[in-house]
Amino acid sequence: MNLVQRAAPSLPKLFGFAKRPFKSLRLPGEPLDSSSSLPPLFYGIHVFHCPDAVGIVAKLSDCIASKGGNILGASVFVPENKHVFYSRSEFIFDPLKWPRKEMDEDFHKLSLTYSAMRSVVRVPNLDPKYKIGVLVSKQDHCLVDLLHQWQEGRLPVDITCVISNHHRGPNTHVHRFLERHSIPYHYLNTTKDDKSEGEILELVQNTDFLVLARYMQVLSGDFLKSYGKDIINIHHGLLPSFKGGKPSKQAFDAGVKLIGATTHFVTQELDAGPIIEQMVARVSHRDNLQTFVQKSENLEKQCLTMAIKSYCIPFRRMVGAEADHEQYKCAHDADCRDKCKADHCKEKCLELPSKCSAGVCVCPFGPEHSAERVISSSKCASDSDCTNFCPTECNIKTCVEAKCSCGCHR
């Protein structure tokens, strides 16, 4: 008997447990049944960077717990011999007990106590999305991927403008897409002596951060100081190796067996800013420069998207059964609606906002809906990834209410 067969009888219970919303812990003296009347909780993230000192974790915990919040997970890092402290806390809270404005004030007081260099708190369900500007040059594979991810609701940002130093005509697919979604497009010609940085600053002054989606111009130190916010760049190579131009050719000439892409923050030193994400792929002597570039471009797109998501909403630790059930997102999430085509799902997608509690979302359509898909070890046949992978039409014919029985692609 294999592991799936042995686990099958307990799966309905497992996913039934995963559906239960989080409840805040009872405070001392609080009646046992008081939790039944609690409103939905919200999910928050706090990122902290300050000089190292004794008791920071205790103060952070007390700041959250004193307002009825409950910590879901915390990551702490103190680099050796650097005397600095980094932390990221993930918590749930009741906004009636801890209003959003009061939360900002409490964390601000904490940052003053420890002379923090950085203290950021985000509540994804309450806070507005980050506004970003995208800078791009001739190659637009990263830009196109970002636009599609944004269109599908997979990026927690609002794209305020796209700026390019390469002219694109009105009939190009990028220009048509931007026009259709009312995203301003600006062409700014750049030369060796004039990088049009003044015009760029004017256009991006209301953004929260910038994304360089293969923007092939070096931003000056004056620009970085004037903008004063974070800038994320995608480098088509594994930093710190192969800096500068044509890293794919550098890697090919060096005969590497692993190629990659790196997203990092932009600093005055070229390609030397703190690394956010890196991705790799294997290559061999059978690859040529063209296949090197193709593999590299795929990595760049994935790496940039992942970095933006990490920056906006730091990855949370999956809790309990959700660790094995991550693909079932909130019912009113566009990604969920796209992946599940069953009528009973589509009807309920817009009716269940209450199912999303504290930012912890699972498939709300019953344990059977979840368990059958896991037991089958296959994706829903209506999922484009499945249909593309399967060369036959059997998976389409056997897809009934998103319960895929096709096993040909396993």
Automatic annotation (TrEMBL):
A Pfam family: Formyl_trans_N
Keyword Hydrolase attached: yes
Keyword Hydrolase: yes
GO function term, MF aspect, one: formyltetrahydrofolate deformylase activity
Annotated ranges, domain ACT: 45-125
Coiled-coil ranges from the UniProt annotation: none
UniProt name for this protein: Formyltetrahydrofolate deformylase 1
Keywords noted in UniProt: Hydrolase, One-carbon metabolism
Gene3D superfamilies: 3.30.70.260, Formyl transferase, N-terminal domain
Gene Ontology BP terms: 'de novo' IMP biosynthetic process; one-carbon metabolic process
CDD domains hit by this protein: ACT_F4HF-DF
